[in-house]
Structure formats: structure tokens, C-alpha cells
């Protein structure tokens, strides 16, 4: 069993053959250009405090500019043919019969496709699925074989004109005679995806060394016998010996302890991103160039793997031209097979661009789902003190018919189970099972919504059973700064959950809940009132986060900014620009996001940040151009902290090497050292805001003056940095000509010199017009740190006030109040938007959303929002909800990633509120009126 368990591990990246490959794993001719970069906003974009009045992309959106990938057709893309072809897939809706072909006779002659593609065509042309252990072994079901999963495509139909395409697609939809099936068979699912186990026994105190932990020792991996996991024996494994000890302690717990065992279920859901999966791809048969316009959270991977796919086939590949628009995915457009179906369609497009875009039925049928989880939890609580003695949890999740991220999702769910609690002893395991269900992937929450919701429901029930206030029980066990998580790692920074708990306990919703219950129920006969609390902290990041960012300043002070990050909804284009402004006092004049072509960064990588041995990594890092990973997808709540770290490091470096020495030169002009000489002014007194440069009472300078001086002196006026994080930042030292030694939390650096630089220094700018400065030394966090599984957390707590109609079982959400700690907010309005949107998603998961897994589920192609219940404004207390964000400890606090955690706490808060209202506890989600009526009957 492989030892990687990262949240976003994409197995080992293969290298394209036959085409020269550089750091981006693309042919050198590759052009990766983003079309999403919005026009410059209006002059009123920033307020007096430097905060945006609206998003950077707002004007483009409200004036009808094309922004989302789905908006583009071939005629909108420069250099593309104007003629647009369209394609759709036909899907199997049975997974227990052989596929015997398709019958298109209902289309007649007029609506027959211009090109029909079957599995056998792909085989003849050498087209295979890249990374089959991740994406599955076939694109289309082979004739005579049973589909691997419900909804698996069996044929691709391409039309040269939209009218015939649209008519044919409408005629084929819901016609169950199109796909011909043969004899009944057993299910043809792949092998189960993996099982992992995390066991920890702490010392006598939280500060004492652990007796056993994954960070010190190892994670345990299991094998499968059917759907049951076989773990090593205690004689074979120290971890399993520790697990046996915990099991014995639970079995022998006396009357002074509560031993609570419960099973929980969290359902499969559809993320319901408004933009369904889509792509528009043109394969130029004449030149061999592949042009892609793709909706994806992972542009780097799409370009890389598309090159591998084509290069392995009979189709010639000379270059890859990737364009990326805005998208919305909630994880579902992260490492998804759909873009590669688009590439396949283009290869059969006869030299014309081919657009393949799901409608909503198809998105339900094939879009990545949130995993269904089954959880068996045991919690041991000291009845007198309320202290947790031990907790175990053993989970299974249904990953559907392709592996995708099911194994790491299950593992992350296990490692997140402890949430905000310190556990002296813990044993959490997770198994990711294969099935005929629609594929599940890295949907928002990544397994943690499922596991932490169960923990919070369990803690509330334990409090009731020992007669303790639920928040007091949480306070007795809260995870504090410096304590170890269930992997044995100490999280970074200050953990402020105790502060949040005290705020929640004092809030009127909680303090007055019993009084309000009596008053409300007296005034509303037939209804029951309840208040519930949920409190979670969630990791952010993948354990292998990498990014590149670039800043360049012209002599007239024009700032250009480029970044690997691209927009998928949370406002990254806005926040990254504001980060530059926070440091340089000026937001960029020109931005480019989603960039994957970095000629100034000639780095080398095999992209094995989780699986490479320490010995091998130590060898490779001697190469000053090696890095464990080049860049990360837009996922894992990684934009504001990890991707923003590259932005902040680039801006800080420019501050050190350009702004400070140029300003000092200007202030030192004149006899006797100028205005600066009489003062003792230091670098840390430098202040930049509103386009002005100030320090220690010296005459203010405009940014333009400083830029001109920097160019005159030949200082560094452009900086590109590369960063890497393995639950800790890599750092390196560089010797920059004319500047001296630089040290920073980066692992690669390229610079540009100003106009006045001497010729020998300018001659160094030979790498894409930049000077790539080879590092003098580098530190990479040890590979063993992978076992930490997480060191970065962001917490959210929610109080939910509900009423249950005892006649209908309907739950009415009256209001909710959330408390969040996210470090320093870069753009508070964006944080507020994330919280409000996340709460709506959590409310949907708790009360409304549900997908059957198998034959009556979305794989049959008949699901749409007419059958799938999403929460409406009336369901989420849109006008009465409130929230507060803890003030940062200082203005130097780092921002924390919160895009996933914001939706979780409200789920158990509602479940606990329903228990308070009805006296009945529900352990399976969603909590529907039918379940409530059944429990009350």
C-alpha cells in the first residue's frame, strides 16, 4: 500500500514522451494564456482605506463581458476557426448488463452525427485514459463489457452545426432504447481504493512526548477482503498494538466513565455549481497544436495530462495552448476526467473546434459527488470531570466507479474527526470503497464535513447523558495552542477555540435558550423550539502547496502582477491584488492570473511530494533547480494563505531590494547625506500606502519617484518567486548580484534589473528575459512531515435556532449566528460572502439535499433540480442570520483559509437544535420531515 495520504494527491505524474518536457510538463512551445483577467476597474474601485468597493471582476460581469469558460465559443477566441462543432455523450444507465452497442435509428438520416466515436475507435487510434488508477481504465464502455459505473459514457457524437446537435440530443435524452444491453452480469467495479488508520497514545500530559503517533512512527494501511479491511496484527505493527490497548481500555471502562457508541451516516450530494462541466477544444490537424478552453480548478494538470493523452496516441502533438476562464467547482472541477473527454472530442473534430458541455441532467449524471460516509464512533468520557479519555472512529465511504480522490478523502475525514478537542488516546480508520455509483471526488469539505458533524453530534449527546452543559463539556476538552493533534503534530499559530466557546456561551441564543423555548412553544402551539451548537476547526491546504508569483515595476511606476491562481468564485483575483497593495501601497496596474507558463522559472520536478523517499529528495535538492512540486490547483482552501504567500513574498522582496534602497537614495541626496542623515531611520519604519512612500518623518515620496530612481540605479525592479509548503514552509538563500544575500520562505527566485544596471548584470537576464538566481542553500520540510496530515486550522462555530412543526415534521430555521476566526481578513466583504454561501450549503446538507447512490440515483440521467432539493432563501434565515469574526491578535496575523470550514458547523448545530426541540436525536443526514415524524410516532 502506498504511503501517501495527502488530500489532493494526484498519484505520480507521468511525463509526456516524444515532446520535450520542461518544468510545466508541457512542450516548450506551450502557451498558457488566461482569458479571465478582467479589465481595469473603475477609478472608484478602492475606498480611502484601500479596500475594494466591489470585486475586481465586477464591471466585466455586470456589463456582460465573457468571463466564465462556458461563455466562450470558437469565434470568441483569437486565432481559432470560426466554425464551431458540438458534441454530446450517450451514457449507460445499467451497471449489471453488458453493453452491446447503440441504436440511433430514432434520429433518422437528418440527425445522424457527423462523427460517432466508440471505444473501439479509441483503441485503434491509441487513445487511452491517462493515469487509469485515478481516472478509470476506459473512457467509453467497450462492446461486450459491463459498465464500471452508472452513467458511464458509451459513445461520443459530434455535430458540425448546433441546430442538428441540439435536436438530436433532445431526441436521445430519456430514450432507453438507444443503449442496447446484453445478458445480466455481476457488477464490474474496480478494486476498493484504500484504507488508512491513525493511532495515537499521548503521554501523561498533553505536553509530554507521545508514546505512539503517526508523526513519530507511521500511518497504518490495510488490505481488503471483500469490503472488509484486514489490518496488520498487533504483533506485526506497533500502531495496531496501540490500537488494541485503546480497545481494551474502552472495554474495561468502569462506572465512572460514559462509553458512548453511535453510528452516523452522511449522504451523497451534488455540489450544484451553477456552471456545469464544459470545455471547448481545437486540435489543429495541420500543425499538431492542441488548443484548449477549459473550465477547471487545475489548469496546470489539464495542460500536462492533455499533452500526455495526445502524445500517447497516433495523433501528432507539437504544442499545447491552454486558455482558462472563470469557473465554479467547489472541488468538482479539481482533477476530473471530463476535460479529457473534451480533448478526445477535439481529436475527432476533423480540424474544427469541438465544444462538449454538460447540461444539468448530464451534470447530475456524471459530475463528481460528495462521498457518502458511514461512521462508527466511540467516545469515553469521565463522568465527573467531563474529560475525554479516548475516542475511536471507523469509517467507510462510497467512492463510486472511479478512484479519483476517494482514498485521501477518507483519510482526511479520519484525521479531522477530533475537530476542536484534545484526545489523549485515539484510533481513527477509514476505508474508501469502490461501487457502481457515480464517481465521488474532492467536493468542498473533503470528508471533514461528514466526520466532524458526527463528532459534534456525539459530543452534544454525551453532554446530555452526563448532565453537563454542552459548551462546558467542550470547554473541558478544547484543543489549545501547543497541543498535539491525532497525528501527533502541533498545529501552527494560536488556536482560539476557547475564546469562541466563551463568546458562544454568553450569546443570548444560548444563554436564554431554555426560557425562549418555553415562551415560543406557549405562543406557537404545535411547534417545538430548539437551539443547537456546532463548533469545528478545519485544515486548509494539501501538504504539498506550491505557487509562483511575479511583480515587475516600470520606470514610471507601472506595476505588473502575474500569478498561478485563477478565479473559481471566492474572489482570488481581488484578494491577491489587494495583498500587493497592502505591501507596496499600490494595487497592480496590470494583472494576469491562472498563468502556467513561467519561462523565468526553469525548475525541475517529478511532482512526487508525498511519495519520494527522504534519501531521494536529499539527493535531488542538491540541484538548485529542483522543487518537489511546481504548482497547486485552486482547491483545499489554499488561495489566501498558500497562494497568497507567494504574492506576499514577491511584494516583500521587492520592498527590500527596490523600494527601500531607492527611497534611501532619494532621501540621502544633497550635502552631508541629505534629509536622511540627521535621522536614524530603519527599514522596518518604511510605510507604503495610497501610492506614497514614507519612513521615520522623512519627506514623502511618490511610488513613481521611487520606481524611477530604482531604474536609474539599476536595482532589481522585477521579482518572481516560487514557494513550497509541506505543512511548513521551505526556505532558501540567494546571492543576488548588486544586492547581496537574500533569505526568504521561498525556494526559487528570478529577478529583473532596472534600466541603469551595468551591462554585465543585464547579460544575466537570459531566462525568459529574467535572471534565474540559483539558490545558495535550501531547506525543505522532511518527508516524514507528511504524516502530520495537517498543521493549519481555521475554526467556525454556529448557533442555530429552529422550530419543528410537530404535524408536518418540517424544520424552520429561525436564525443562526456564527463566530469565525480567520486571522487577518484581506477583504472582509469576501470573507462575509464565503461565510454566507457556506452556511447555505451546510443547511442544505443538514436538512434538504440527498442523492440515492445506485439505480434510482443520478446515474440514471433523470435527475435535475426538479428532483434534487436545494435550500432557498426562505430556508436559510437570509434576513435574520448574524455573524462575527474575531479580531486578529495583531496586524501581522496571517490570513487563514476558510472556504471549506464555513459550511460545516451549521450542520451539527441544526442536528443538535432538532434534538433540543424534539427530544429525539438523529444520526443520519439529512434530517427530513419524514424522519422526524417517524421518530415522534
Automatic annotation (TrEMBL):
- Annotated segments matching region Disordered: 604-623
One annotated GO molecular function is: iron ion binding
Compositionally skewed regions (Polar residues) per UniProt: 604-613
Q: What Gene3D superfamilies does its record include?
A: Aldehyde oxidase/xanthine dehydrogenase, molybdopterin binding domain
Q: Which domain of life is it from?
A: Bacteria
Please name the InterPro entries in this protein's record: Ald_Oxase/Xan_DH_a/b_sf, Ald_Oxase/xanthine_DH-like, AldOxase/xan_DH_MoCoBD1, AldOxase/xan_DH_MoCoBD2, AldOxase/xan_DH_Mopterin-bd_sf, TAT_signal
Write one Pfam family the protein is assigned to.
MoCoBD_2
Under SUPFAM superfamilies, the record lists: CO dehydrogenase molybdoprotein N-domain-like, Molybdenum cofactor-binding domain
Start and end residues of each Aldehyde oxidase/xanthine dehydrogenase second molybdopterin binding domain: 504-876
Q: In this protein, which residues make up the domain named Aldehyde oxidase/xanthine dehydrogenase first molybdopterin binding?
A: 255-478
Q: What is this protein called?
A: Xanthine dehydrogenase family protein molybdopterin-binding subunit
User: What is this organism's lineage?
Assistant: Bacteria, Pseudomonadati, Pseudomonadota, Alphaproteobacteria, Hyphomicrobiales
Amino acid at each position: 500500500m502506498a504511503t501517501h495520504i495527502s488530500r489532493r494527491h494526484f498519484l505520480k505524474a507521468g511525463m509526456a514522451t516524444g515532446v520535450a518536457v520542461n518544468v510545466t510538463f508541457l512542450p516548450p512551445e506551450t502557451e498558457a494564456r488566461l482569458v479571465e483577467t478582467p479589465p481595469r476597474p473603475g477609478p472608484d474601485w478602492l475606498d480611502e482605506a484601500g479596500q475594494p468597493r466591489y470585486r475586481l471582476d465586477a464591471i466585466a460581469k455586470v456589463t456582460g463581458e465573457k468571463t466564465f469558460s462556458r461563455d466562450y465559443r470558437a469565434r470568441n477566441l483569437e486565432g481559432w476557426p470560426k466554425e464551431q462543432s458540438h458534441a454530446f455523450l450517450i451514457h449507460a444507465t445499467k451497471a449489471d448488463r453488458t453493453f452491446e452497442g447503440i441504436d440511433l435509428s430514432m434520429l433518422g438520416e437528418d440527425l445522424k452525427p457527423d462523427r460517432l466515436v466508440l471505444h473501439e475507435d479509441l483503441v485503434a487510434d491509441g487513445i487511452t485514459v491517462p493515469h487509469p488508477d485515478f481516472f478509470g481504465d476506459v473512457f467509453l464502455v467497450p462492446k461486450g463489457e459491463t459498465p464500471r459505473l452508472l452513467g458511464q459514457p458509451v459513445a461520443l457524437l459530434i455535430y458540425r452545426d448546433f441546430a442538428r446537435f441540439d435536436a438530436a440530443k433532445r431526441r436521445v435524452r430519456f430514450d432507453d432504447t438507444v443503449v442496447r444491453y446484453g445478458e445480466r452480469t455481476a457488477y464490474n467495479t474496480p478494486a476498493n481504493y484504500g484504507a488508512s488508520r491513525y493511532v495515537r497514545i499521548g503521554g501523561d500530559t498533553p505536553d509530554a512526548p507521545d508514546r505512539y503517533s503517526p508523526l513519530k512512527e507511521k500511518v497504518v494501511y490495510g488490505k481488503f477482503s471483500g469490503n472488509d479491511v484486514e489490518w496488520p496484527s498487533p504483533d506485526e505493527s506497533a500502531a495496531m498494538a496501540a490500537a488494541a490497548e485503546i480497545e481494551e481500555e474502552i472495554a474495561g471502562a468502569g462506572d465512572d466513565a460514559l462509553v458512548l457508541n453511535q453510528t452516523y451516516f452522511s449522504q451523497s450530494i451534488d455540489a450544484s455549481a451553477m456552471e456545469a462541466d464544459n470545455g471547448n477544444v481545437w486540435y489543429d490537424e495541420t500543425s499538431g497544436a492542441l488548443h484548449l478552453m477549459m473550465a477547471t480548478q487545475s489548469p496546470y494538470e489539464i495542460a500536462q495530462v492533455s499533452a500526455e493523452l495526445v502524445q500517447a496516441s497516433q495523433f501528432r502533438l507539437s504544442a499545447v495552448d491552454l486558455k482558462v476562464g472563470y469557473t465554479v467547482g467547489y472541488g468538482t472541477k479539481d482533477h476530473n476526467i471530463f476535460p479529457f473527454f473534451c480533448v478526445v472530442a477535439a481529436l475527432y473534430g476533423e480540424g474544427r473546434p469541438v465544444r462538449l458541455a454538460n447540461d444539468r441532467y448530464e451534470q447530475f449524471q456524471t459530475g463528481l459527488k460528495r462521498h457518502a460516509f458511514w461512521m462508527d464512533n466511540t467516545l469515553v468520557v469521565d463522568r465527573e470531570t467531563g474529560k475525554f479519555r479516548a475516542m475511536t472512529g471507523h469509517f467507510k465511504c462510497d467512492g463510486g466507479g472511479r478512484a479519483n480522490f476517494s482514498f485521501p478523502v477518507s483519510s482526511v475525514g479520519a484525521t479531522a474527526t477530533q475537530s476542536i478537542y484534545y484526545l489523549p488516546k485515539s484510533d481513527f480508520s477509514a476505508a474508501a470503497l469502490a461501487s457502481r455509483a457515480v464517481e465521488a471526488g474532492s467536493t468542498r469539505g473533503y470528508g471533514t464535513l461528514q466526520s466532524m458533524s458526527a463528532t459534534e453530534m456525539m459530543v452534544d449527546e454525551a453532554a446530555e447523558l452526563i448532565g453537563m452543559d454542552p459548551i462546558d463539556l467542550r470547554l473541558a476538552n478544547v484543543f489549545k495552542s501547543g497541543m498535539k493533534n491525532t497525528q501527533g503534530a502541533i498545529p501552527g499559530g494560536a488556536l482560539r477555540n476557547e475564546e469562541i466557546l466563551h463568546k458562544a456561551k454568553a450569546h443570548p441564543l444560548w444563554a436564554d435558550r431554555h426560557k425562549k423555548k418555553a415562551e415560543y412553544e406557549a405562543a406557537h402551539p404545535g411547534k417545538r423550539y430548539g437551539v443547537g451548537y456546532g463548533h469545528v476547526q478545519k485544515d486548509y491546504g494539501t501538504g504539498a502547496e506550491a505557487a509562483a508569483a511575479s511583480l515587475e515595476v516600470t520606470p514610471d511606476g507601472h506595476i505588473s502582477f502575474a500569478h498561478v491562481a485563477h478565479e473559481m468564485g471566492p474572489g482570488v483575483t481581488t484578494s491577491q491584488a489587494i495583498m500587493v497593495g497592502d505591501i507596496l501601497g499600490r494595487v497592480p496596474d496590470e494583472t494576469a492570473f491562472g498563468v502556467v507558463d513561467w519561462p523565468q522559472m526553469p525548475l525541475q520536478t517529478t511532482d512526487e511530494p508525498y511519495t519520494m523517499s527522504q534519501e531521494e529528495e536529499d539527493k535531488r535538492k542538491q540541484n538548485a533547480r529542483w522543487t518537489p512540486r511546481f504548482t497547486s490547483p485552486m482547491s483545499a482552501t489554499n488561495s489566501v494563505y498558500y497562494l497568497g504567500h507567494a504574492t506576499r513574498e514577491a511584494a516583500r522582496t521587492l520592498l527590500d531590494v527596490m523600494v527601500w534602497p531607492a527611497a534611501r537614495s532619494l532621501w540621502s541626496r544633497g550635502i552631508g547625506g541629505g534629509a536622511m542623515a540627521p535621522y536614524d531611520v530603519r527599514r522596518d519604519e518604511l510605510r507604503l500606502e495610497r501610492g506614497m512612500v514614507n519612513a521615520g518623518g522623512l519627506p514623502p515620496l511618490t511610488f513613481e519617484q521611487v520606481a524611477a530612481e530604482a531604474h536609474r540605479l539599476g536595482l532589481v525592479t522585477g521579482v518572481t518567486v516560487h514557494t513550497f509548503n509541506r505543512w511548513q514552509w521551505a526556505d532558501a538563500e540567494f546571492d543576488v548580484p548588486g544586492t547581496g544575500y537574500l533569505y526568504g520562505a521561498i525556494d526559487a527566485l528570478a529577478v529583473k534589473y532596472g534600466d541603469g544596471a551595468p551591462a554585465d548584470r543585464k547579460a544575466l537576464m537570459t531566462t525568459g528575459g529574467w535572471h534565474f538566481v540559483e539558490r545558495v542553500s535550501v531547506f525543505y520540510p522532511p518527508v516524514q512531515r507528511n504524516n502530520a496530515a495537517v498543521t493549519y486550522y481555521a475554526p467556525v462555530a454556529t448557533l442555530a435556532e429552529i422550530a419543528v412543526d410537530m404535524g408536518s415534521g418540517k424544520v424552520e430555521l429561525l436564525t443562526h449566528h456564527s463566530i469565525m476566526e480567520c486571522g487577518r481578513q484581506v477583504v472582509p466583504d469576501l470573507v462575509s460572502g464565503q461565510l454566507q454561501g457556506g452556511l447555505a450549503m451546510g443547511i442544505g446538507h443538514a436538512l434538504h439535499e440527498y442523492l440515492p447512490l445506485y439505480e434510482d440515483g443520478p446515474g440514471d440521467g433523470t435527475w435535475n433540480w426538479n428532483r434534487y432539493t436545494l435550500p432557498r432563501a426562505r430556508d436559510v434565515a437570509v434576513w435574520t442570520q448574524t455573524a462575527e469574526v474575531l479580531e486578529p491578535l495583531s496586524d501581522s496575523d496571517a490570513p487563514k483559509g476558510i472556504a471549506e470550514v464555513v459550511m460545516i458547523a451549521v450542520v451539527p448545530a441544526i442536528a443538535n437544535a432538532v434534538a433540543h426541540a424534539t427530544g429525539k436525536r438523529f444520526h443520519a443526514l439529512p434530517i427530513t420531515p419524514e424522519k422526524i415524524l417517524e421518530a415522534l410516532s
